[in-house]
Design goal:
Helix 3 runs antiparallel to helix 4 and helix 9 runs antiparallel to helix 10. This protein folds into two domains: 106 residues, no CATH class; 181 residues, Inositol polyphosphate kinase (D-amino Acid Aminotransferase, Chain A, domain 1), CATH 3.30.470.160. A hairpin with a 4-residue loop joins strand 9 and strand 10. The longest helix is centred in the C-terminal third of the chain and has 18 residues. It contains ten helices and 14 strands. The protein is an alpha+beta fold. It is globular. Helix content is 28%, strand content 21%.
Length: 388
């Protein structure tokens, strides 16, 4: 760690290893914090977040400035420097051991060629992405000393997003341009083997600001997928396979093709880390979804277009989890399974009084499309728990 003299050190941003969906590159700022490009509508959502929703969203931790850096070999990296002149509440990050900005967590460079190469190595001879990818839970990269770092594995989808993001940034902007990124809680940092299901919620995905062309494209995707029939579709998933030590990954293209029955089967597959269904996870997930449903029903004027819902649990069964040193979220009571349900991605969320879009006509009542999706999700999980 650097001494206090160096003050606000820059942080080398790494691709976030557990990104299963979306198209924005998510980056790791520190162990408990990820960052993503700032969209004013999303910032506006986090700044006026209703209290009741806070337990269902990542904690917002402020804004950071990010710039591209090219090293002598021409490798591109992203560097974050804490925004100066910011109110303390935003600039400061609550984390043990002082300001994480002062610690350079990451010693490895993520070069452009490395990301591409790693990517190709992780799925030999295949096109960039197939829908059925597996990745090892050992690292694809060695650190500077040629040592294998701690168990690190990369969901290929996240690497794909990261690579595209670097390409876009380097072609559009020069190195010195500062980009604003949002700092958000890494909601999977407490899991050893995070199993993550990314669900696109609601019957409509396009924002109010979408062009006619984009609107038509999104409507078509909804009509041709379970978004229309169930109000929810799978956008990405990773499930730890205890027997092989791999994560099984599915991407959004897989999710779009599913029938309602296929959706149900995939939901079942998401809850199988080994040979049998983790039935003990069903009740805590259902309870948490029902709690979220009650909150969404009360949010008048909110429309969560294109946002996702994450369902998370640990692929490693904790027999000793009752005395596990990590606190469970308060809502779980003594839930030993440590499941979590979180809403993410609010770039197209609209609500009455939104600072980013003050002239928009507010919608009335709660988000019925979202509610329809949640109700169907709960029904399917209940039928799985009844062994149907």
């Amino acid at each position: 760690p650097l001494g206090p003299a160096e003050g606000r050190a820059a942080v080398l941003l790494q691709p976030f290893v557990h990104q299963v969906g979306g198209h924005t590159s998510m980056l790791t700022y520190d162990e408990h914090t990820i960052c993503k490009p700032l969209v004013s509508q999303e910032l506006s959502f986090y700044e006026s977040l209703p209290l009741a929703m806070r337990q269902f969203t990542p904690q917002y931790k402020g804004i950071v400035s990010v710039h591209l850096k090219k090293d002598s070999l021409g490798n591109l990296t992203l560097i974050a420097s804490p925004s100066l002149g910011q109110p303390d509440s935003c600039g400061r990050l609550d984390s043990t051991g002082g300001d994480p900005a002062v610690t350079l967590w990451h010693k490895r460079k993520w070069s452009h060629t490395q990301v591409t190469k790693t990517f190709k190595d992780s799925c030999p001879g295949k096109m960039l992405l197939r829908t059925d990818l597996q990745y090892h839970t050992d690292s694809l990269l060695e650190d500077a000393n040629g040592k294998q770092p701690e168990r690190k594995s990369y969901n290929p989808w996240g690497l794909h997003c990261h690579q595209q993001h670097l390409n876009r940034m380097s072609s559009k902007h020069n190195e010195n341009k500062l980009h604003q990124f949002l700092l958000l809680e890494n909601v999977v940092s407490k899991y050893s083997y995070p199993c993550i299901l990314d669900l696109k919620m609601g019957t409509r995905q396009h924002g109010d600001d979408a062009s006619e062309e984009k609107k038509a494209r999104h409507i078509r995707k909804c009509e041709q997928s379970t978004s229309a029939s169930l109000g929810v579709r799978i956008c990405g998933m990773q499930v730890y396979q205890a027997d092989s030590g791999h994560f099984l990954c599915k991407d959004k293209y897989f999710g779009r093709k599913l029938s309602p029955e296929g959706f149900r089967q995939t939901l079942r597959q998401f809850l199988c880390t080994g040979k049998q269904l983790r039935t003990e996870l069903l009740e805590p997930i259902i309870l948490r979804l029902k709690a979220l449903l009650a909150v969404i029903r009360k949010q008048s004027s909110y429309r969560f277009y294109s946002s996702s819902l994450l369902i998370i649990y640990d692929g490693q069964e904790h027999k000793e989890s009752a005395n596990h040193h990590l606190p469970f979220p308060k809502t779980h009571g003594t839930n030993p399974c440590r499941v979590d349900v979180r809403m993410i991605d609010f770039a197209h969320t609209t609500f009455k009084g939104s600072k980013s879009n003050p002239n928009a006509t507010p919608h009335d009542g709660p988000d019925q499309g979202y509610i329809f999706g949640l109700e169907n999700l709960i029904k399917i999980l209940q039928s799985l728990s009844e062994g149907k």
